[in-house]
Design goal:
- It is a single chain.
- By secondary structure, the protein is an alpha/beta fold.
- It has helices at about 20-40, 50-65, 80-85, 100-105, 145-155, 195-205; strands spanning about 70-75, 90-95, 110-115, 130-135, 155-165, 175, 185-190, 205-215, 225-230.
- β1 (about 70-75), α3 (about 80-85) and β2 form a beta-alpha-beta unit.
- It is globular, with a radius of gyration of 16 Å.
- The two termini are about 25 Å apart.
- The structure holds S-adenosylmethionine (SAM).
- The site of S-adenosylmethionine has 19 residues, from α1.
- S-adenosylmethionine (SAM) binds next to α1.
């Protein structure tokens, strides 16, 4: 059984998910942690679509009366936590990267953050009112996606919610990271909104909202959004 907030004892354990691609991703995000902390601090203030969908997630989660415990899956620097908490939820965060978690704890000390892999979440079955996956599902290889979406479904209570944002595209493999100039590179997939909808439905959610918007500013892709309820 797992405790809330997440126990820290398993932080160094990625279980069966350790492989070269996971290690590449983890190392890259360890290096990117301070870069993201600088670059993304306050970014939500300039992203009305992101705020609107996160607010809808908060409102529907509270209305479901399944408790307020939600997890920001692939939380990075933890920038969503104050926003979710200000709207009545009790968010914690998990991330593959220990450096991201270190930065999240430093910058947002009031929240519970743990190192974990979203393919093996450290939570019991149906233990959460919701999960937010903000630009964190785009790194999953196609072969990992069915199990990963099932894992997200496993931890959400029936009637609870999943919300996700992603770079929208054709689901083809790309290499990313080099534009940061920090010497990192890793696999990423700009996900097809149809595939995301199909995956969440296949895992046991019903889509409540999906949408997208064109790229803005320095963004290299359109952005996709999906909100779904656990059946
Ligand atoms: C683009 S960043 C987004 C971070 C944060 N959600 C935000 O919006 O600022 C993607 C994050 O997902 C994390 N991540 C990628 N694959 C993961 C996995 N399998 N399990 C947990 N975290 C993962 C990365 O370490 C990284 O911090």
């Amino acid at each position: 059984m797992y405790a809330w907030p997440p126990l820290l004892a398993g932080e160094a354990s990625y279980g069966p998910c350790v492989d070269a691609k996971t290690e590449e991703l983890r190392v890259a995000h360890d290096i990117l942690a301070e870069f993201y902390a600088d670059r993304l601090a306050g970014a939500l203030d300039h992203m009305p679509a992101d705020r609107a969908l996160l607010s809808l997630f908060c409102d529907l989660t509270l209305a479901a009366r399944l408790g307020t415990d939600v997890v920001d899956v692939g939380c990075g620097t933890g920038r969503l936590e104050p926003y979710l908490a200000a709207r009545g939820l009790s968010p914690g965060g998990i991330d593959l990267s220990p450096e991201m978690i270190r930065v999240a704890r430093r910058d947002h000390p009031g929240f519970g953050f743990s190192v974990a892999d979203l393919r093996e979440l450290p939570y019991g079955d149906a233990s959460l009112a919701g999960v937010a996956c903000w630009y964190s599902l785009m790194f999953l290889a196609p072969s990992d996606r069915p199990a990963a979406f099932s894992e997200l479904a496993r931890v959400v209570k029936p009637g609870g919610y999943l919300v996700t944002a992603f770079k929208a595209g054709d689901s083809q493999l790309r290499r990313a990271g080099h534009s940061t100039g920090l010497g990192v590179e890793f696999d990423v997939y700009w996900l097809s909104p149809e595939e995301v909808a199909r995956r969440v439905t296949g895992a046991g959610f019903a889509t409540v909202f999906w949408g997208g918007r064109p790229a803005q500013g320095e963004e290299g892709s359109p952005q996709g959004y999906l909100l779904a309820q656990r059946s």
